[in-house]
Every structure is written in C-alpha cells, then in structure tokens.
Automatic annotation (TrEMBL), chains A, B:
A divalent metal cation binds at residues 17, 74. This is 5'-nucleotidase SurE. InterPro entries: SurE (IPR030048), SurE-like_Pase/nucleotidase (IPR002828), SurE-like_sf (IPR036523). Its cofactor is a divalent metal cation. Its main location: cytoplasm. Binds 1 divalent metal cation per subunit. Transmembrane segments: none annotated. Its EC number is 3.1.3.5. It comes from Rhodonellum psychrophilum GCM71 = DSM 17998. It comes from the Bacteria.
Length: 234, 234
C-alpha cells in the first residue's frame, strides 16, 4: 500500500475469524497507536473489523477522507457464502457504506505456511484499477486469491458469489469437571455448477473479484408476497 | 409459537446486540438444557445467534426438520441497514441458508418499558402465512413492529430495505489509570425519500416485512467492471 499513497492502519488486536459484521455495543473500545511499520501510522483496537473502520473514520482520520479502504489479506478463503461470516469483508462493506472505495483481500490457503509474496503485484494492480476507475456507489470488492500452486495464476475473473454453504459438524467433548462442550468444524459444500462464480475461479487458478453490496432485500420476492399472501386479517 | 406447533428453543446465554453474522471459530461452545418454559424444550448456549441455529440443526434437532425458524422478538429496531449488524436477523438468514422458512422479529422501541403484548396476533398471523404459503428459496423475512402508539397499527407492508445508515459518535473517556477508552454511540440517518421501504412503514405505523437474501453480489456492477476495467496487465 505504501507504493500507492499514505497508509493509516487501524487493526483489531486479536484474531477476528468468523466475526461477521459484529460491532461493539454496550462495551467500551480501546484504541492505541503502535509504532510497528516504517512510515505508517498504525493503531490497534479491541474492537471488531467493522468497529475499526468506524474508529478510523471518526477518530483517527476525522476530516480526512481516505482514497481507498483495504482490509486483509485474510489468511483463509472468503469466497461464496463465507462473505457473511467474514470480518475482513465486513470491514470492506463498512467502508462502502461510508462511501469509500473499499476492497477486502483473502488468500484461499489455511496452511500456517501459506505464501503471500506472489500476490503483491495483484494487490497493487487491483487497488490501482479501483483508484483509476472509482467504484460504483455502495459496492465493495471481495477479492480472493488461489493458493500458490505449481502453475502460476491464470488471471483475474469478475464473478458472482457461488451458491455454496458450510456443512457443520459438532464434536462433543467433556472438560475435566465432566461438563460437555462442543467444537464446531465445517465442510464446505459447493452446489454451484456455473463457471461465472468465485469458487470456479479459485479452483481454476484465477483471482476472483466479486463486487458486493449491502442491500439484502430479496426484490424478486416482494411482488409475489404482495400478490399471493393475505395480510387483510385485521 | 405454542399455538402453532411444538417449540424448541436454542438461545444465547447473554445479550447479542450488534453481533451480526458472527460465528464461534477457534473457541469451544457450551450448550445446556434449561427448564424455563412449560411444554417447551429449551437450551441455552454460549454461542452467537448464528451458532444457535447451527447447534439447533446439528445437535438438538438432528434428523428432525423444523417447519419454521423464528428469531426474536428483538428489543430494538432492525430496519434498514441495521439488518447487517443484527444477531436476530443473522439467525433468520442462517435458517434460510439451511433451507428452512425463517423469520426475524424486532420491535422498534428501545425503551426498557417497551410493550410487546399487542404484537402477539401479528406474530401469529405472519407465521401462519409463512406456514401456509411457504417461502421463496433462500429468503428470510425481516419483520419490524412500530412502537406502541395511541393509534393502533395500520396494517402490514411488504417493503424493501431503506437506504439509511448509522452516523457514529465516539465519546472518549479516561479510566482510573488514566488510559483512554471509547463509547460508540450512533444516530440513525435516513436518506430514503421512498414510501416502499421499511423506515417509511414504521414511521407511518405499519408493520414492515422485508424479504432478505444472502447473495451479496452487486450483479449490476459485474458487466461494467468487465467492460471498463483493464485486467490484462499480466
């Protein structure tokens, strides 16, 4: 990011896997400046990824408007339905809500030895395109990179979110006091046969970019509900 | 709900305001049966609202398929953009993801003295409509009730999500050790001039029902990005 402009970091002070679009309500937030990167103003916060964007806007940047909000690189996939559970993407969507061009980056590799170096040119290129072309109002990009394979990355695909889900498995265990507890684990199940979605792109060694928005309205369902349902009981 | 069928409750053991679609990753979950309602099987969990739906499906109900997933009534509004931050609605969306007809209910009244009794017939009516008509695949209903006013509720409106946002204010304070901390507060700002949205419905004393879905793809942005942007650098 330093090649593109002045960088200000506001990051959570602990892992935020599965944090979704959670925000901190009814509890206090901490925010401390940290001297960790050269030529970069950096803060750490006790809040969620979405909190960090709000703190950056209202407390750190105040009147200064960022040219770009970037979240990640997340260590692990945020393709398909994972966008709902993703703290990384919720920060990007929070940025879009504020009217800023916003991008969430993720690497589809959960290995502790995952390599990130080869992504640098792609991150730069994608950010540059967004800075040059702007972004449609209310849209944030969900960018996922394939894991490092023998073949180099084949290119970039603009995609829709694949139709897929997590199939959870709960493993029951007992603590030293004999009380039970659960570990949640999940298997990703892809129902999507199309080739225009992010799962297909990653499987075929492309970078996937899904433009995302935050209007959850199922517009197609409105007229049907108005037509078929009976609301006249009262 | 007991008028409509057999009820199984799986609820978080603590307040979940602003929890969004968070799930518990890398930490254990607790789940205990509680004898709190007559003729109702009830569990409490240390997890988030979305976790509770997953636990209900995979551990509590196992092979039994629910006819309806109901979340709430939330004490406070989940209209418009608040759907993103809402644990109540994330539980309903999680239900829709699993293929169950799902509804999140909220009362647009933050008062500790908020009255819920007058909503019972509406909750019953809306659930009955969903059981009778079924729900479009992948759709969950976001139902909001107006606060109790002198005039009685005027009816039910099927709506789209209003275009609005929270404008945060961070109040900085200092703890007894002199370290700073923040309270986040927010003002709701409604940009929407339309009359087909949930904010309009609530302001005009209607019950609002927004059908919601979980495909965040900004489909309208895909062709534009394919047309205008240059991805051919590599």
């Amino acid at each position: 990011m330093k090649k593109l402009g002045d960088v200000v970091v506001v990051a959570p002070d602990s892992p935020q896997s599965g944090m979704g679009h959670a925000i901190t309500i009814g509890e206090t937030l901490r925010l401390y400046e940290e001297d960790i990167f050269e030529d970069v103003v950096a803060f750490k916060s006790s809040g969620t990824p979405a909190d960090c964007v709000k703190l950056a806007k209202h407390h750190v940047l105040k009147e200064r408007k960022p040219d770009l909000v970037v979240s990640g690189i997340n260590h692990g996939s945020n393709t398909s339905i994972s966008v709902l559970y993703s703290g990384t993407m919720s920060a990007a969507i929070e940025g879009a809500l504020e009217g800023y061009p916003s991008i969430g980056f993720s690497l589809c590799d959960y290995s502790s030895k995952a390599e990130f170096d080869h992504l640098e040119e792609y991150v730069y290129k994608i950010c540059k395109q967004v800075l040059d072309h702007g972004m449609a109002k209310g849209v944030a990009l969900n960018v996922n990179f394939p894991p490092k394979r023998n073949e180099s990355i084949r290119g970039i695909k603009i995609c829709r979110q694949a139709h897929a889900k997590w199939q959870e498995v709960f493993e029951e265990r007992f603590d030293p006091n004999g009380r039970n507890y659960f570990w949640m684990a999940g298997n990703f199940v892809n129902f999507d046969k199309g080739e225009d979605n992010d799962e297909w792109a990653i499987a075929n060694n492309y970078v996937s970019i899904v433009p995302c928005q935050y209007d959850l309205t199922a517009h197609h369902a409105i007229s049907q509900m108005n037509q078929d349902w009976n609301w006249e009981m009262f």
